[in-house]
Amino acid sequence: MKKVFVKSYGCQMNVYDAERMTDMLAAEGYSETKAMEEADLVILNTCHIREKAAEKVYSELGRVRELKQEREAQGHETKIVVAGCVAQAEGKEILRRQSAVDVVVGPQNYHHLPDLLKRAKSERPVDTEFPIEDKFDHLPRLEKSRIQTRGVTAFLTIQEGCDKFCTFCVVPYTRGAEVSRPVAKILDEAMRLADAGVRELTLIGQNVNAYHGEGPDGQTWSLGRLLRRLAEVPAIARLRYTTSHPRDMDDELILAHGDLPALMPYLHLPVQSGSDRILDAMNRKHTGDEYRRLIERIRKVQPNLALSSDFIVGFPGETDADFEDTMRLVADVGFASSFSFKYSPRPGTPAAESDAQLPEEVKSERLARLQNLLETQRQAFNHGTVGQTLDVLLEKPGRHPGQMAGKSPYLQPVQFETDAHRIGEIVTVRIVRAGSNSLFGELIGPGDKAAA
Ligand code: SAH
Ligand code: SF4
Ligand code: F3S
């Protein structure tokens, strides 16, 4: 049997896509390996979001090329595929920069992989045209045995692409226009996942709350409505969604946070900056105060809401005062966890053309200050859960014998001792201590017995 090794960079969408690629290649006779050295097929599923992410691909390709040569000397052939957002953005350029690459395939075209691999016997195909057909219709159905190897939590793509065109961002170019999958297909996938033991679904999309899919009633469903329906799927105990845009938090979605116990009280809602001037230059189409008011509205229906966000520092033209606005917004809102980045100019995006680029030292200094504050908030949030009783979904054995590890509603890893519970159960745990990355607790309540 031939072996495939897939390495994914970037966001959850790439994780999901990588799983679909391995599922599809399984049907073509490839088994998945975690060891690149023994792979007949190496797929790098790449990310183009920041320069560092994109450049990493070329250094990795250098290593893969050496491997290919070593294997060739031993009489084994290795095919190298570059997939994902760098493939989409750079296309043929990748073949030019790295002669060992056999196939380049964009994120909307990977259902063509079996055919592309055949063509790769005599040419070096590049497939980055946005196809008219829906790739999901051409991917194999999820197999129970394959789902089970991936655990009790799963990603489910419900929407792809982005029409927002934030001026710093490559995603609208690499992933194309917003497309929502029909409700029936999402439900079918959700049931299959549930049937194989999945308890927690994270609905994903580049702009997931812009979801507007065709419902079984012929109407257009919003994310709020879809969540309501998914909450009825037996065995699915937890729902999450990511990544959302503040502009698309409509009333139906906000209300769902109050009404649906399965919808976890943890929301990733990137704000990027706290300065109205910078938000405007970023084309985010909301102000800092609008973001604050939005959070207040969601907290009104879900007082336990914990937040996470993405931030960019050093956007072109960002002054000290703009940066202080960001620090103030962070202090006002309070985040349980966050991702923060130095602005990275990306080819083809409007902000990259600006004359007001900031020096690296300024970006580094601001990033350090922001990350310091965000880390203090993260630790404070984790310490704040000590003494609380939280539901924990058991995901795997713990670090030590007799321990289990799972996640709190706020996605915090929790370790505790038990000998009677199984992966997939949800138990009640009192948190007794917060470490730097995990919480430690003691079991106080039984499982819900719905384990896989
Ligand atoms: N769709 C999501 C974000 C996807 S990209 C949203 O709208 O929030 C993930 C994060 O990468 C962004 O939220 C942003 O903080 C960061 N990012 C995107 N482009 C960037 C760039 N050019 N430089 C630095 N960070 C960037
Ligand atoms: Fe990028 Fe903005 Fe679209 Fe998010 S909303 S993917 S940051 S363009
Ligand atoms: Fe990266 Fe593409 Fe995701 S650029 S963040 S892999 S959508």
UniProtKB/TrEMBL annotation:
| Annotated binding of [4Fe-4S] cluster 1, by residue | 11, 47, 85
Keyword Disulfide bond carried by entry: no
Q: Which residues form the MTTase N-terminal domain?
A: 2-122
Q: What's the cofactor?
A: [4Fe-4S] cluster
The entry marks the following residues as binding [4Fe-4S] cluster 2, namely 162, 166, 169
* Cellular compartments annotated: Cytoplasm
Q: Which GO terms describe its molecular function?
A: tRNA-2-methylthio-N(6)-dimethylallyladenosine(37) synthase activity
Give the Radical SAM core domain ranges.
Answer: 148-380
Q: Which UniProt keywords apply?
A: 4Fe-4S, Cytoplasm, Iron, Iron-sulfur, Metal-binding, S-adenosyl-L-methionine, Transferase, tRNA processing
Q: Does the keyword Iron-sulfur apply?
A: yes
Which InterPro entries does UniProt cross-reference here?
Elp3/MiaA/NifB-like_rSAM (IPR006638), Methylthiotransferase (IPR005839), Methylthiotransferase_CS (IPR020612), Methylthiotransferase_N (IPR013848), Methylthiotransferase_N_sf (IPR038135), MiaB_methiolase (IPR006463), rSAM (IPR007197), rSAM_horseshoe (IPR023404)
Q: What class of enzyme is it?
A: transferase
**UniProt remark on cofactor binding:** Binds 2 [4Fe-4S] clusters. One cluster is coordinated with 3 cysteines and an exchangeable S-adenosyl-L-methionine.
Catalysed reactions listed for this entry: N(6)-dimethylallyladenosine(37) in tRNA + (sulfur carrier)-SH + AH2 + 2 S-adenosyl-L-methionine = 2-methylsulfanyl-N(6)-dimethylallyladenosine(37) in tRNA + (sulfur carrier)-H + 5'-deoxyadenosine + L-methionine + A + S-adenosyl-L-homocysteine + 2 H(+)
Please, which domain of life does this record's source organism belong to?
A: Bacteria
PROSITE patterns under this entry? MTTASE_N (PS51449), MTTASE_RADICAL (PS01278), RADICAL_SAM (PS51918), TRAM (PS50926)
Instruction: Give every TRAM domain span.
Output: 383-445
Predominant location: cytoplasm
Instruction: Tell me any Pfam family this protein matches.
Output: UPF0004
Q: Which family does it belong to?
A: Belongs to the methylthiotransferase family. MiaB subfamily.
Function, please? Catalyzes the methylthiolation of N6-(dimethylallyl)adenosine (i(6)A), leading to the formation of 2-methylthio-N6-(dimethylallyl)adenosine (ms(2)i(6)A) at position 37 in tRNAs that read codons beginning with uridine.
The UniProt subunit note reads as follows: Monomer.
| HAMAP family named among the record's database cross-references | tRNA_metthiotr_MiaB (MF_01864)
Q: Would you tell me the protein name for this molecule?
A: tRNA-2-methylthio-N(6)-dimethylallyladenosine synthase
Organism source for this protein? Microvirga terricola
According to the entry, what is the taxonomic lineage of the organism?
Answer: Bacteria, Pseudomonadati, Pseudomonadota, Alphaproteobacteria, Hyphomicrobiales
Q: Gene encoding this chain? A: miaB
